[in-house]
Amino acid sequence: MELLHIKSLEKQSDTHIRVTEDSFYIEGNYYYLVNKEFRKVKGAKDGCPIKEYMGFGTLRKRSPKKLLQFFFLAIVLEFVDMVAGKIGDYLFFMNTDLTSYIVNTAAILCLLQGVRLFFSKKKVYEISFLSKRFCVDEKDFNEQDINKMNEVMIKLR
Known about the structure:
The chain has 157 residues and is an alpha+beta fold. It has helices spanning 64-90, 97-118, 143-156; strands at residues 2-7, 16-20, 23-34, 37-49, 53-61, 122-129, 133-137.
């Protein structure tokens, strides 16, 4: 018997959470949290027994992949700047507008990546089980519905 059914507020994500007397089901667009990294799932259905339910919480984190991209771009920028400086030293009699253009382009790309990293914090609700950790976007669900789901699952556990 289905005790609780929550639909996402956003039509684009179309995520459904169902709680029955013995199981938790989620389908649609959600994330698995594996080794502190989000793995996006689209259009799939999964579930866990209520007995494995550990708890619920909110997470806000930045992607380590974007941080690594930023550091890699900063290293490339430093390397390009060093090469452009050496080219300017050896070819002082030539026009170095091209090297200045390349260095400026690399600096702008690095700056854009840094801004992207700063503003790309993911905000999710985490639903933890012994075997899996499901995450859904915070903007997709009403906080009262998620709290109600947590209360129902704690009572069933």
